[in-house]
Amino acid sequence: MALEWQERGEPVPGAPRVLGAGLSPERWRSAALDIAAAGGRLVALWAGGEERAGPRIHAAFLVEGAGWVLSLPLTDSDSSYPGLEDLFPAAGRMQRAIADLTGLYSTGADVRPWLRHAAWPPNYRPLIDSPLGACEAKAVLDSYDFVRVEGDGVHEIAVGPVHAGTIEPGHFRFSVVGEKVLRLEERLGYVHKGIEQRFTQLPILEGHRLAARVSGDSAVAFSWAYCQALEGIAETEIASRAAWLRALYLETERVANHLGDLGALGNDAGFAFGLAQFSRLKEQLLRASGLALGARYLMDAIVPGGTRADLTASDARELSRCVREIANEAVALREIYDEHEGLRDRFNGAGAVSPTLAARLGLTGLAGRASGQAFDLRIDLPCQPYGEMTPLKIGSGEGDVAARVAVRFDELQESCRLIQEITGSLPAGAHQRRVGSPALGVLGMGLIEGWRGPVLIALEAGPGGTIHRCHPHDPSWQNWPVLEHAIIDNIVPDFPLINKSFNLSYSGHDL
Amino acid sequence: MLKTLRQIGSIGIVSEPPPDADEGLRVRESLNERIRTVLGRALCIRHVDAGSCNGCELEIHALNNPLYNLEGLGIRFVASPRHADLLLVTGPVSRHMEVALRRTYEATPDPKLVVAVGECGCTGGIFGESYASCGRVSNVIPVDAAVPGCPPSPTRILQGILAALSTGRR
Questions:
Q1: For B96-127, how does the pLDDT look when each residue is reduced to its tens digit (9 = 90+)?
Q2: Is the pLDDT of residue A3 over 80?
Q3: Beta carbons of A191 and B104 less than 8 Å apart
Q4: Which residue in chain B has the smallest CA separation from A503?
Q5: Which of A164, A166, A507 is the closest to B60 by Cβ?
Q6: Residue of A169, A175, A176 lying closest to A193 (CA atoms)
Q7: Residue of A164, A336, A505 lying closest to B79 (CB–CB)
Q8: pLDDT tens profile A268-287
Q9: CA of A263: which chain B residue's CA is closest?
Q10: Does B135 contact chain A (CB < 8 Å)?
């Protein structure tokens, strides 16, 4: 039976099967309670809204095979809006980020800044006030109230922001006894570079380029989500060939990332052979991608209205041949991984997140599927061309590093199969169409299952071909807090391995 | 074990010869020729992500794959700036990383080199300068070579590293 707020649902342009409803503060809380009770999942929480209509808080959910965007208009921006962190723990940090960027506070108890360190003063609201000049203020270090763990023999280890490897910056504060971790507290925001404000300074037909650079490893997912949202509010339907090419790019991106991670995970468990072999396969794929698709990393391959380039039949065959070879080699390497006692010893049981905990905390995407959270937008909310394919849903219930490795191996094979299917049955026709002019005051939604999990773009057009507001959301927002739980009772030396098994984005989170 | 050895044997050595330095990527002459000759190619690199989208990092990772085999050239990545001869810096410098980048630079012993990697490191890229971004790397620390590209290929990054070291004249 449909609930009262569900009956008000109206289709949101862009991603398929997404409905939207505007709600009063009381209904906002009760709708969130209904969704939590129905096992729904929070996808993103952000602030948006027209200047005239006043600010609004938006929350996107996946519930019972549909997407929902609930909007809460704020009549009095000085008083706080009802927070959702008690129902969806991942909302906590998103609400703190909203406060940093817009000055709108929730009723949530944690009022520490999250994305704002010391780069801008607390009274500056980047998404509301006019842009500030660059680098004028003197750089200072700020302090942050980490939660202290006290007791006999407890000490702290502070790591970062500059890490020992070639990885992104962030800070981890471990409270340990001996080498056992009692508590990990993350502090992120170091690579906040003002992406959401920057969007408002770009023409709407250029925004996909910035979207692709929200998180470089998910360039295809973000630029597709952006274009899906834009094409939705511009009532432009892309050609069937363009949709299939986009899926080809997305699966290629997934395979490249999984190859990189499988090598790095072997290496972090002391098996350098794995890194050498998988990084060789990844290089093969990147070179094939460079030849067939025009770039090793597909930063600007997806454009509004379709794709930048077409694919010739011979290039498609060549890419398909390369991917088949990689899939075969990966089967042989998986046997070696599975039989390696050292790897089994390090992988099994490390960083375990039970399905119950994963559901409670909202663990999503690849890591979620390894902990019994069987959600995949390509299957549950398919956009074209996934509706015409039958991607296999991969999953495991173990929730440890071994499960996240196994899910990657399975998804790698499945994506290689999809690439064969796509290259073998690309529909004929144009790869690009002209984009109409986007409707004003309408929220467009992009939802794409990137390699890490569901990527969301919420887009509102401004007058004269500008962007009024664009909010990109990476699944790392949901999964970073779960990493803090996954490490509890593990030993400090296992942290790099456990962290890598999630491989979360800093840039995609810090924005 | 046997399968592992068989795999190593059947793949063989796949490393490719390195590219030449691209003198055009050098933007500054901070070290004299003698020091460059002493450093030669036995080089320790510390990578600093100062605000990158993580795209450049993926191509820096690729430098260590068996095809580019950076370590085979005597160049390796180290875990501390105190062990480094060269800083490889990516990203527009976010305001939140400005202090960390300056401190990393100060912690690196003289003589030292800095290579800015990627469009953002060279110009600020699509992010530009704002309340949260200082733009190009040279706005914060001196840069010896700059490698454009989004992301630049591993070959281009290697050409930039070699250009910073090169004793050749432009």
A1: 999 999 999 999 998 889 999 999 999 999 99
A2: no
A3: no
A4: B54
A5: A166
A6: A169
A7: A164
A8: 999 999 999 999 999 999 99
A9: B65
A10: yes
Domains of chain A: residue spans and CATH = 1-145 (3.30.460.80), 154-187 (no CATH), 238-439+475-510 (1.10.645.10)
Residues of B in contact with A210 (CB under 8 A): 126
- Burial (0-12, 13-18, 19+ Cβ within 10 Å), A152: exposed
Which residues from B are below 8 Å from A339, CB to CB?
3
Number of domains in chain B: 1
Domain of residue B56: give its range. Answer: 43-165
**Residue that has been written with the tokens 């015409």 in this structure:** A388
pLDDT of residue A35: 93
Rg (CA), chain A: 22
Alpha carbon distance A106, A128 (integer Å): 17
CA A397 to chain centre: 21
Q: Say which residue the tokens 């969007």 belong to.
A: A199
Closest to A470 (Cα-Cα) out of A123, A111, A101: A101
Q: What are the backbone dihedrals phi and psi of residue B147, each rounded to the nearest 5 degrees, phi first?
A: -115, 105
Q: Which tokens is B64 given?
A: 């260590």
pLDDT of residue B77: 92
- Four-residue CA torsion sign, A447, A452, A453, A456: negative
Q: Which of B66, B132, B134 sits opposite A276 (nearest CB)?
A: B66
- Cα–Cα distance, A28 to A33 (Å, whole number): 9
CA nearest to A220, candidates A261, A256, A189:
A256
Is the minimum CB–CB distance between A282 and chain B shorter than 8 Å?
A: yes
- Matching residue, tokens 């925004």: A207
Pairing outcome for strands B86-90 and B113-117: parallel
B14 inside domain: no
Average pLDDT over residues A294-311: 95
Q: Rounded to whole angstroms, how far apart are CA atoms A371 and A352?
A: 8
CATH number, domain at B51? 3.40.50.12280
pLDDT at A8: 80
Counting Cβ atoms within 10 Å, is residue A159 exposed (0-12), middle (13-18) or buried (19+)? Answer: middle
Q: Closest CB to B94: pick one of A190, A216, A217.
A: A190
Query: Could you tell me if residue B101 is inside a domain?
Result: yes
pLDDT higher than threshold 50 for residue B170: no
**Chain B CB within 8 Å of residue A333 CB:** yes
Q: Is residue B95 part of a domain?
A: yes
Q: Is residue B106 part of a domain?
A: yes
Task: Judge contact between B62 and B54, C-beta under 8 A.
Answer: no
- What is the model's pLDDT at position B38? 61
Amino acid at A35: I
Residue of B nearest to A161 (CA): B100
